[in-house]
Design a protein that fits this description.
The complex is a heterodimer of chains A (299) and B (278). Chain A has two domains: 30 residues; 198 residues, MetI-like fold, CATH 1.10.3720. Helices cover 75% and strands 1% of the residues of chain A. Chain A has 13 helices and two strands, in the order H-E-E-H-H-H-H-H-H-H-H-H-H-H-H. The longest helix of chain A has 39 residues. Chain B has 278 residues and is of the alpha/beta class. Chain B is 37% helix and 22% strand. Chain B is built from nine helices and ten strands. In chain B, helix 4 crosses helix 5 and helix 4 packs parallel to helix 6. The relative contact order of chain B is 0.18. Classes of the chains: A mainly alpha (299), B alpha/beta (278). The interface between A and B is medium-sized, with 20 and 28 residues.
Chain lengths: 299, 278
């Protein structure tokens, strides 16, 4: 509970600082006088939310990113496993992939325009390419790092290639794959928004850019806030799914990096001289603390 | 011979749980149809990796249903021998046959129990034991029943739904044993399965092994660096030395705890230790 309160305080403080700087028109080298205030943005936000365009933009962007990201997840895992498990595939696909990998996905806009009949497909293509490589690379590493004895055990039970793939390779690589998916969803957002800005019709990125061209700064900030919240929600979803599917991973009983148990402030004021004070809170943590520790990764 | 009644009398607690949960017959699944062991033969075999031969010119005939223990100093190629018998390594030269047919690769016929923790960590204990049954195509409900029966046989029936990292090292090895036997292999190859356990757990595991092997009829090759373990478990003991097989000796009164002081056993023990150079 206390930690959720802290998180709210952190967000509120950032907003408060923004409001203060802009409403007092602070101009100290950084110029906040042209900046929309929080209340301006909130008013525009409320107006947009009640209009139809906002929700169209939102669903358009979400459809594009989900399509691109899911495609990238499937292709990335499949290619990663193939390249890691087959020398032939590594030799055939490796060089091509390594040459394409350094090209920023957003630089593929001309390619997308040439290749695809509609903008929509081009945007999905760019989003997919962006997320594909992090998923591919982490899958490849995770598959190569698998303990050989797992595979040998399944082989001596009479398991064939597909059994090894389904029972050892995929589940064993899952923790690593989710590392790639977490990075991938973040990169996907960057690319879907950029692609929409360049070539989209509708979508959060398109709207944000439109607002900029007509000098509607509060609108731009509404767009930015929307992107921020959507990005946070989607990456949390990936994170939660990953943790759910890799619950088998052994976890330490104590929390790495957690603050050592310390007496509450109230405790200290009530019993300033009592020697056993530190022992009390040390016993308490147990379950509650590990529960909190699991939340830590969420943010 | 009634192996099932023996099993029951040895582990009354297990029989009780069986009866209470109403899983039907208390006999383990394989007791109904004993599996015949397989004959494994090596002739003039060189084992190891290309350029690094571990064992040269090995000639060894392992009879069906026999328990052969293998001892030797560490690094002499005990694991190589076992992996080759499992089909994970091919021989560099010579022939290896199973019942007269050349051995071409791993098969469910020859189960391997590893020294290290080879359970799949994302599967519960029961799901691990179910795996060889799934590979054999046993239907889901039957798979579950047999896996549960095997876990109860190794004394872990109540922990069937735990993940491997939640139980102790000795318990994990018991699950590995159950997993290996659940697939009804005709040969069980064991690579120092109790090597990482403390002496007390070890003795218990040896007794458990003898007990669960009864009625399976499987041929067993058991690699260990512990001479006493080798002499207790084996019908015969194979001594490996630098670069090859040194000797194969018959063991008097195998699997009798009381035979420890048998003069013939003591003499053999001295011989083995001498030839190992300790």
């Amino acid at each position: 509970m206390k930690r959720y309160a802290l998180r709210l305080v952190s967000l509120a403080a950032a907003l408060g600082l923004w409001q203060a700087l802009t409403s007092w028109n602070i101009d100290l080298w950084l110029r906040f006088s042209q900046f929309p205030t929080v209340t301006d943005v909130a008013r525009t936000f409320a107006a947009r939310v009640s209009g139809p365009d906002y929700w169209t933009d939102l669903t358009d962007s979400l459809t594009r990113i989900l399509a691109g990201f899911l495609l990238a997840a499937v292709l990335g895992v499949a290619t990663g496993v193939l390249v890691a498990r087959s020398r032939l595939a590594e030799d055939l696909l490796g060089p091509v992939l390594e040459v394409i990998r350094p090209i920023p996905a957003i630089a593929l806009v001309p390619v997308a325009i040439l290749l695809f009949p509609s903008n929509e497909q081009g945007i999905v293509f760019i989003t997919c390419t962006a997320a594909f490589f992090p998923v591919l690379v982490s899958t490849r590493h995770a598959v190569r790092a698998l303990t050989p004895v797992w595979e040998e055990a399944v082989r001596t039970m009479g398991g064939g290639r597909w059994r090894i793939l389904g029972s050892v390779v995929l589940p064993g690589a899952l923790p690593g794959v989710f590392g790639g998916l977490s990075v991938g969803i973040g990169v996907s957002w960057i690319c879907v928004i950029s692609a929409e800005m360049i070539s989209g019709q509708y979508g959060v990125g398109y709207r944000t850019w439109q607002d900029y061209t007509v000098v509607d700064y509060p609108g731009v900030f509404v767009g930015m806030a929307t992107i921020g919240v959507l990005g946070w929600l989607t990456s949390t979803a990936v994170e939660l799914l990953g943790r759910r599917l890799t619950r088998w991973l052994p976890r330490t009983a104590y929390v790495p990096g957690a603050r050592p148990p310390r007496p509450d402030r109230s405790d200290r004021s009530v019993t300033p001289a009592a020697a056993p004070a530190p022992a009390d809170p040390a016993e308490a943590p147990g379950g509650a603390r590990s529960e909190e520790a699991r939340d830590e990764h969420l943010v | 011979m009634s192996t099932s009644s023996e099993t029951v009398s040895n582990t009354p607690s297990k029989a009780a749980t069986d009866a209470s949960s109403g899983t039907g017959p208390t006999a383990p699944p394989e007791a109904a149809a004993p599996v015949r062991g397989t004959r494994l033969t090596l002739a003039g075999a060189s084992l190891g990796r290309p350029g690094a031969i571990a064992l040269d010119e090995v000639g060894l005939d392992i009879a069906p249903g026999e328990i052969l223990t293998v001892v030797g100093p560490s690094g002499c190629g005990k694991s190589t021998l076992l992996r080759t018998l499992a089909g994970l390594l091919s021989p560099l030269a010579g022939d290896i046959t199973q019942d007269g047919h050349p051995l071409t690769g791993p098969s469910a016929d020859r189960a391997l129990v590893f020294q290290e923790d080879a359970l799949l960590p994302w599967r519960t204990l029961r799901a691990n034991v179910e795996l060889p049954l799934a590979i054999r195509g046993v239907p889901r409900a039957e798979r579950r029943r047999q896996a549960q029966a095997w876990l109860e046989r190794v004394g872990l029936g109540s922990q069937a739904r735990q993940l491997p990292h939640r139980v102790s090292g000795g318990q994990r090895q018991r699950v590995q044993l159950a997993r290996a036997l659940a697939g009804r292999p005709r040969a069980v190859l064991m690579d120092e399965p109790f090597g990482a356990l403390d002496a007390q757990t070890r003795a218990g595991m040896q007794d458990l092994l003898v007990e669960v092997l009864q009625g399976t009829g499987a041929t067993v090759v058991f690699v260990t660096h512990d001479v006493d373990e080798a002499l207790f478990l084996g019908d015969r003991v194979a001594l490996l030395g630098a670069g090859g097989l040194v000797a194969v000796r018959d063991i008097p009164r195998p699997r009798e705890r009381g035979a420890h002081d048998d003069p013939a056993r003591v003499a053999l023990r001295r011989d083995v230790l001498t030839s190992l150079g300790t």
